[in-house]
């Protein structure tokens, strides 16, 4: 059974992970920055080392293409992820999928295999969305979700313009995004959550990606003296916010989603004044669109109920709304089968985070392979996936890619 | 039946209320400030107009004393309140009690009555505690609760020293606080809460003052990704804070106290991150010490329960602890009887706010008379007590004082 070069895979993860560290050891490679350029250069050198044709599109996505005279007219199998990071990031998020993809192709090529269709590994621009909004930008543009000319004008949090920065670092390509129509897309990624670590699962077969609804909820009460106002005459915006938080948790326990009240603010926020206003965010997610919509409706009905019982006024502002993304059942089954063949236990997973794969799912059958994140830590220097889990994931990746691309020994 | 001069009472409330207004009409007379000096001068002029002997003690409390050769060796009946204000204040809080006290004595004197014991009206320094801490300072010092020499060194929020400011405005007296040992103390005051307005009650017979426990509660959870962390693996400090708020409300519904979560803060306070920390204040009040202590114990037990169920860590820091103050039942009954005799409905009341009377209760039998605050608004320019209610309160005050001091026609 062919396997990837685990030592090389791990060495490259560390090598890319060393790029963008500041004096204090904080790793940051924001999209189209100087440090990300260094990372891009490294990725391109590895693609060239594997004998791949390197193409950069107008939004800065980098593709390493393995095609031959025999298969160049067939739709390619595409794999990939991203190498941009958040501020003070870990070294696995995104990078594992790009390095793993190069490793898979290099392994196949070096072993003298041939493929029925081209295999392409992509490194998509600005997945994290820290410097330029929105996130998953490169894959979204590639899938036709946003016009490239508009997106290149995006102004960053630092006042820079994305198109100018891409040009400056030498990664403004001339090819139109979407120039290759993939037959399918597969992404290897760390879980970024604790489930596989807690359950001792080695390979996650990611069958879907949660829908995300964000809203900012404003509750208006009446500021009054905390000592002189009896309970029955209070209109306590903070208490209503607390009730919403508790209600949400019970709601998603039933629906199987997750809910988070990340931000809260009281006005006047004084110890002896009943809050006249509470502003809170609600992050509601569910892999099932019907359940997500139903939870949101139930929540809205609860707002009405609270207006009656607690005499507050509640308004809600939509901040984000992404539908859940179902992945391709056929690919998910291939991932399960490949893991089983290597004696690795698997679990169906939902991606809780956004991914390039969710954008590629717009244009072709798509799925993801997850490997564990110890303690679920991510977007943090403590992000960690054990070496053996990285290698196991890359081998399952190799097997799935081989089957889907029709790889054979010559 | 003798009655106060209602027109004069109301005119003086307006006259004192006009002092300390800035260009924008915001009324502010912070303790020992230039504007409060103007208010003090006005009060002293009214005391002198009533033929009272004016004495200022070392902490700046002003007393107007009506005594005669016949009664000067008897313990006086003392009444009074304060004329310092919060920032952007109403015109009734405190002032009604001082002006009402002067009015009661002037009414008795002008009608040719005599009194078995001296009647003293006091205007206590710095009841509000906005510029200098603590609040109820003048009455607390008068009652022996703090040493005057220490308190005079108090540094204000504006960097000034209380003793120097009192000297500057000409109200650093030479008499020791506590120089008169009162037989009893009665304070006329606005409710500062909504109960009497809502229930249509004209006279509140204040039987006690709530105990106040303040604590700052810190809940430690674990910051994690709002999307990738399943509900059963969350340690959500914000949710625990919400549960505490909801629990508190149910707790005081049973005990008859009030509870307020005025301040709250989440860390990191990001929309898609489970809060790792929540810091909240708890303001817990009850007129009954046993119930207040019991509520606090139940709350502490709930913290332990949450540590088990929600895996958070909870710590609490004591900020303030005042025991409840029971007032004198005999005086409370006199207030009820006097109101009934004038055809005014009454209600036993608990003072939700701190008062000079709570300090005077340390050294003599004490009670308070409340008149309604429309909509419970106080510490606000919209603070309002209808004219007829002010006059009604002053007349009940007159009757109670007359009975307690042994007032008779000559």
UniProtKB/TrEMBL annotation, chains A, B:
Q: Does the keyword Hydrolase apply?
A: yes
InterPro entries from the entry?
A: Amidase_Cbmase, Bact_exopeptidase_dim_dom, Peptidase_M20, Peptidase_M20_dimer
CDD domains for this protein: M20_bAS
Q: Which residues form the Peptidase M20 dimerisation domain?
A: 210-308
Task: Write down a Pfam family by its short name.
Answer: Peptidase_M20
Keyword entries, A-Z: Hydrolase
Q: Name residues in a coiled coil.
A: none
Please verify whether the record's keywords include Hydrolase.
yes
> Could you tell me one molecular function GO term of this UniProt entry?
hydrolase activity
Task: Return the similarity comment.
Answer: Belongs to the peptidase M20 family.
Which protein are we looking at?
Answer: Zn-dependent hydrolase
The organism encoding this protein is Ventrimonas faecis
């Amino acid at each position: 059974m062919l396997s990837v070069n685990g030592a090389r895979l791990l060495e490259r993860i560390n090598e890319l992970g060393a790029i963008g560290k500041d004096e204090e050891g904080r790793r940051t490679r924001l999209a189209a920055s100087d440090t990300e350029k260094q990372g891009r250069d490294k990725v391109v050198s590895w693609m060239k080392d594997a004998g791949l044709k390197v193409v950069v599109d107008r939004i800065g996505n980098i593709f390493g293409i393995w095609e031959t005279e025999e298969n160049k007219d067939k739709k390619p199998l595409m794999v990939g992820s991203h190498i941009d990071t958040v501020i003070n990031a870990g070294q696995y998020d995104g990078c594992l999928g790009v390095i793993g993809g190069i490793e898979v192709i290099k392994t196949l090529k070096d072993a003298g295999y041939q493929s029925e269709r081209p295999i392409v590994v992509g490194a998509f621009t600005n997945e994290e969305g820290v410097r330029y909004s929105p996130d998953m930008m490169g894959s979204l543009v590639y899938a036709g979700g946003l016009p490239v000319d508009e997106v290149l004008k995006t102004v960053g949090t630092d006042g820079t313009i994305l198109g100018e920065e891409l040009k400056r670092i030498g990664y403004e390509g001339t090819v139109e995004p979407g120039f290759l129509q993939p037959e399918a897309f597969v992404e290897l990624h760390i879980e970024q959550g604790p489930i596989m670590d807690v359950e001792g699962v080695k390979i996650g077969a990611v069958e879907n990606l949660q829908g995300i609804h964000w809203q900012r909820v404003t509750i208006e009460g009446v500021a009054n003296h905390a000592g002189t106002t009896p309970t029955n005459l209070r209109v306590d915006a903070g208490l209503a916010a607390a009730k919403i938080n508790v209600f949400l948790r019970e709601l998603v326990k039933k629906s199987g989603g997750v809910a988070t009240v990340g931000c809260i603010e009281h006005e006047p926020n004084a110890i002896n004044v009943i809050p006249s206003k509470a502003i809170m965010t609600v992050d509601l997610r569910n892999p099932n669109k019907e359940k997500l919509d139903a939870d949101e409706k139930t929540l809205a009905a609860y707002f009405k109920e609270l207006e009656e019982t607690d005499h507050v006024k509640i308004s809600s502002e939509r901040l984000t709304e992404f539908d859940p993304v179902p992945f391709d059942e056929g690919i998910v089954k291939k991932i399960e089968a490949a893991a089983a063949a290597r004696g690795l236990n698997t679990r169906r997973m939902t991606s809780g985070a956004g991914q390039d794969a969710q954008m590629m799912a717009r244009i072709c059958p798509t799925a993801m392979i997850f490997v564990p994140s110890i303690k679920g830590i991510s977007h943090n220097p403590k992000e960690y996936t054990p070496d053996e889990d990285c290698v196991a994931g890359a081998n399952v990746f190799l097997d799935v890619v081989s089957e889907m691309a029709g790889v054979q020994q010559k």
